[in-house]
Every structure is written in structure tokens, then in C-alpha cells.
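Q: Hi! First time doing this. I have a protein sequence and I read that you can turn it into a structure. Is that right? Here it is:
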Amino acid sequence: MQERLSLFEDAKRMGSSEVTFDDYSLAIHKRIKNYPLLNRKVLKDIIQKPPPMICFENDLYDINYMKELYGIKILHINKK
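A: Yes, that's right. Below is the predicted 3D structure, encoded as C-alpha cells:
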């Protein structure tokens, strides 16, 4: 969530109208590899459910609000 919020804030600060990030499932898959094998199962159980804010695509909330708030016109969500 913090990474995504930072992407939006950076785009606004730099005057960019595009943001690109991984969908929640892909982000979990990439980040979980950074943890020791024994901790991966526990971590995956904790983060498997998306947080209630700033999670897009599979768990689409109101993306238009975030786009308008940060002046984003184009949002790219990587799925692979």
C-alpha cells in the first residue's frame, strides 16, 4: 500500500499523468521471494487479503477517486 501511494505522490510531484504498478497478486508474488522460506507461509497468510485501501484490479474499489486526487489520467496495472 505504501509503495502504491508513493507512486501516486511521486507522479503528482513530477507532474506526470501516468502511474504503473503491479496488481496485488503479482506484487505479493514478487515481494514474498525476499523473505526466508520459513516465514513465507506466515507472511502470505497475513497479506493474502488486500488492505482496504489503494488496492486495485482484482479488488477494484474507487480507482477514479485516486486518479482524480493525484491528477492521473492513465493507470497501467501489470498482471504478469
